[in-house]
Amino acid sequence: IPLILSVIVIIGATYVNMSEYTFFSSLSIQDFKIDMAPSRDVIATEEVSYVDEEATMRKKNAKKRSLGAVFDKDTERDAIFKKNYATFIAKLRTLMSSVQDEERFIENVNKKEQFSSVMGGKAGIDSSALSTLYRSRNAHDILNQSVKIFESLIDQGVVNISLSVLEEYGGKEVTITHLGKTITEENRDFSTLIFLNHKEGYDNADVASYIQQSLEGFSYEYEFTIPFFILPHLKENVIYNKEETDRRIQVALDKVPDVVNTIFKGEHIIEKNVVIKEEAYNRLTEYIANKKGTSFVDIKLFLAFIVYILACYALAFFLFSKEAFGETVERKYLLL
C-alpha cells in the first residue's frame, strides 16, 4: 500500500508540474498581451486550422480592385442624340441661307423658342462663334465636321462619373451593356471612354480635348466654333450601373476562397521571454478559440515523464535495497 500511495503521489506531482509548464486549464488569453515578454511557453498540443479573416478580407479587396464597373449604353437613346443634333445643324444651315444679315442670324439663333427644343432647353450660343461661322467660306464644312465629331463622341461613349466611384475600382477593363432590341456586352479598356468633364489622374480624354484632337490640322475657325455647337447638346451616354456592378462583384467575391491558417501540433505559439508580436498574439487567440480538446497538456509527454519518474523511483528503491548494499539499510529519523 505505501508503494502504491507513493506512485500516486508521484503521478499527481508530475501532473501539477506539467500543468505549470505547458498550461493546463490555466491557459487564458487574458494572461498575454502584445509587446509583453511571457514567463511561460505555449506549445500546441493538437493541430488547429482557422480562417484568417483579415487576410481573407485583403484578398477579397484585391479581387474587387481588379474588377471593373458595369455601364449601360442605350443604342436607341444614342440615335435620339444624333437625330437632335442633326436637326439643330439643319436649322443652322436653313437660317444661314434665309438671313442675309449677320446680326439677325445671331439674334435668331439665340432666340429660345427657335432652338430650345433641340438644345434640351438650353438657349444661347456664343455670338463670336456664330459670327465666325456666318462669315466663313467653310461654314457648311464646319457644320459637317461638327456632326462627324458629335457622332464619334456618342459612338465612343461619354461618361460623367464621380471620383469616389472611380477610386473604388482598380480594374482597367469595364463592361458595357449595349441596350436596344438586342442586348450585347462589350469589355473595353476604361481609358477609351471619354469624360464629360476633365478629371485629374486619369488617361481618359475629356470632351473638350477630344474635340481639339479631332480638329488637328484644321484651321482656327473650325477649332473655335465647333466646341460651341457640340457642348450644349452633349450628355453622358454611358451610364454607370451600380446595382449590376455590385451584383457581379459579389458573385466574384463569393468565389474567393477563405485564407486558412494551420497551427501544427508541437508548434511553438508563444516562446518564454520572447516579446509577443501581434501575429503571435492573433495565432494564440485563434488557437484557444478553435482548440477542440479541454486539456493543454501533451498526453504523450506526460506519460513519458511519468515513466521516467517511475524508473527513477524504481532505481532508487533498488539502490537502497539489501541486494545492492549486501545488507539491510537502517533508516533513522531525527525528531526535534
Provide structural commentary.
The protein has 14 helices and 10 strands. The protein has a 4-stranded mixed β-sheet with strand order 6-5-3-8. The chain is rod-shaped. It is of the alpha/beta class. The model has no long low-confidence stretch (mean pLDDT 82). Helix 4 crosses helix 6.
Features:
single chain, 336 residues, 14 helices, four-stranded mixed beta sheet, two-stranded antiparallel sheet, alpha/beta, rod-shaped, 10 strands
SSE blueprint:
Blueprint: H1 2-22, E1 42-43, E2 48-51, H2 53-66, E3 70-74, H3 75-98, H4 102-109, H5 112-115, H6 127-135, H7 139-156, E4 158-159, H8 163-166, E5 173-179, E6 184-189, E7 194-195, H9 207-214, H10 220-230, E8 239-240, H11 242-254, E9 260-263, E10 268-270, H12 278-290, H13 299-319, H14 322-325
Parallel strand pairs: 3-5, 4-7
Antiparallel strand pairs: 1-10, 2-9, 3-8, 5-6
Helix pairs in contact: 1-13, 3-7, 4-6, 6-10, 7-10
Percentage of residues in DSSP E strands: 5-15%
Q: Helix/strand/pairing class, anyone?
A: alpha/beta
Distance N to C terminus: 28 Å
The total count of strands amounts to 10
Helix-strand pattern = HEEHEHHHHHEHEEEHHEHEEHHH
Strand order in space, largest sheet: 6-5-3-8
Average pLDDT over all residues: 82
Evaluate the radius of gyration: 42 Å
- Spans of at least 5 consecutive residues whose pLDDT stays below 50 are none
Biggest sheet character = 4 strands, mixed
The helix tally amounts to: 14
Helicity, as a percent range: 40-55%
Cα shape: rod-shaped
How would you summarize what this structure contains?
The chain is of the alpha/beta class and 336 residues long. The chain has helices at 2-22, 53-66, 75-98, 102-109, 112-115, 127-135, 139-156, 163-166, 207-214, 220-230, 242-254, 278-290, 299-319, 322-325; strands at 42-43, 48-51, 70-74, 158-159, 173-179, 184-189, 194-195, 239-240, 260-263, 268-270. The chain starts with a helix and ends in an 11-residue tail after the last helix.
